[in-house]
Amino acid sequence: MFVRRSAAVLAATAVISAAVMPTAFAADESPSPSASQALPSGLFGSGDPTYDGVWRQSLALLAQDTVGVKPAAKAVDWLTGQQCANGAFAPYRADATAQCDAKTMVDTNNTAAAVQALAALGGHDAQADKAVAWLKSVQNKDGGWGYTAGGPSDANSTSVVIGALTAAGEKPSEAAKGGKSPYDALLELAIPCDADGGGAFAFQPDKKGKLAANADATAAGVVGALGKGLVGEAKQPAVDTFSCKTADGTDPERAAQNGAAYLVEVLAKDTYLKSALAGAEDQPDYGNTADAVVALAAAGGTKATKEPLAWLEKNAGTWAEQGGPAAYAQLIFAVHATGADPRDFGGTDLVQRLGATGPAADASGSSVAPGDEKKDEKKTDDTEGVSVWWIIGVGLVAGIGIGFLISGRNKKQQL
User: Fold this and answer.
1) Rounded to an integer, what distance in angstroms lies between the CA atom of residue 289 and that of residue 254?
2) Which residue intervals are annotated with compositional bias (Basic and acidic residues) in the record (predicted)?
3) By Cβ atoms counted within 10 A, which residue in 37, 118, 184, 236 is the most buried?
């Protein structure tokens, strides 16, 4: 493992390591922008965007587009305005008029998420192409990507970039560096069927080169190995069962099926995934469970998604309220991938709830009734940015010695 040394990411780690479950923290304990720094009106969520502004904005816009809602123009403009001249995106730039410099902590994950959102919305080819060019410029020799440019490749970062390449009309298999494609990097992180955790993806090898099964990395790896993005999309025809079968190490499709088999096995124990955060091992990991649903659907296992999706429908409400736009987006992706209705998720309209965390959608495509867009502002936003911790936390915190934070993607909930 390695330590991400940037000040911004280390600060993010301090936030993550202090957080376990949303119910364990008072609202006034959350980080928030200074009183003198008002948040942009086009930004989704009202929590501190320092570490996840672009991520949560990208997921929110992508989720709205996925369900046929036309996002507010100022929300899209805010996202495009965050891009640096070299094409990369930082998590948040309070002053987007200032040029990015060596101190601007850009990263692959926020950049790849922005590409997926902009490509889906259409009309932003120039920005998306520039971002893709930057991503290619920082690709590692093993074909993959780390969270920051030059960092060791990890399954999550490589997978989210694969999704960006696909969204931009590129073929990930042809995005090679040193003769290695992103799929080669993912396959190096796939655990053989006859090993402990067989079928799963590891986030990264440990210091001795050993691979450890990681549910979050597996959910991401399955989607990435299939060449898909955050939305996932269900594969047809459906697959009734998954099994782990030894492959020759050159078949991403087989690796994805093996990863799906691992997720099914883990989910069979409780119907949901648990946090790997030290001290919270018995706590549900809502975000990672949603990601697993997307992964299984993408691999064709719609049948296997029924129980974990039903569990989320019954239990994820409070988590989503506290998680804000990224949390609602994750649930929308999961529901959409299974063919269910995100406007009626256990009686909750996820689309309306997401819309209420940001600027009112364009009336020509909005499902949010006038006046409803601010209805949920009373909720606590101390856990905004649920999904950003998927990318920052998993390897970062492990490298520092705090332990893996898998999925929850939430400052207060999990990774």
Assistant:
1) 22
2) 371-381
3) 118
- Measured on CA atoms in the order 374, 377, 379, 383, is the torsion positive or negative? positive
Residue 346 makes CB contacts below 8 A (sequence gap 6+) with 313, 314, 317
Q: Number of C-alpha atoms within 13 angstroms, CB side, residue 149?
A: 15
Q: How far apart are CA 46 and CA 157, in angstroms?
A: 26
CB atoms within 10 A of CB 36: 5
Residue 208: burial class (beta carbons within 10 Å; 0-12, 13-18, 19+):
exposed
Whose tokens are 């936003």? That residue is 381
Does a structural domain hold residue 2? no
Query: Tens digits of per-residue pLDDT, 259-289?
Result: 999 999 999 999 999 987 888 878 999 999 9
CATH label of the domain that carries residue 209: 1.50.10.20
HSE on the CB side for 106, CA within 13 Å? 22
Q: Which helix (H) or strand (E) holds 245?
A: none
Annotate 18-76 with DSSP letters as a single string. Answer: T---GGGS-GGGS----TT-PPPTT-S-SS--TTTHHHHHHHHHHHHHHTT----HHHH
Q: How many domains does the chain have?
A: 1
Q: Which residues, in sequence order, are CB contacts of 378 under 8 Å at separation 6+?
A: none
Closest CA to 277 of 404, 144, 177, 95: 404
pTM of the model: 0.82
pLDDT tens figures, 226-247: 999 999 888 878 888 999 998 6
Rounded CA Rg of the chain: 19
Kindly give the residue spans of alpha helices, DSSP state H, lying in 53-209: 53-66, 73-81, 108-121, 125-137, 155-167, 182-187
Hey, how many other C-beta atoms are within 10 angstroms of the C-beta on 248?
7
pLDDT at 347 over 50: yes
Residue 412 forms part of a structural domain? no
Residue whose token pair is 């305005």: 81
Cβ(262)–Cβ(193) below 8 Å? no
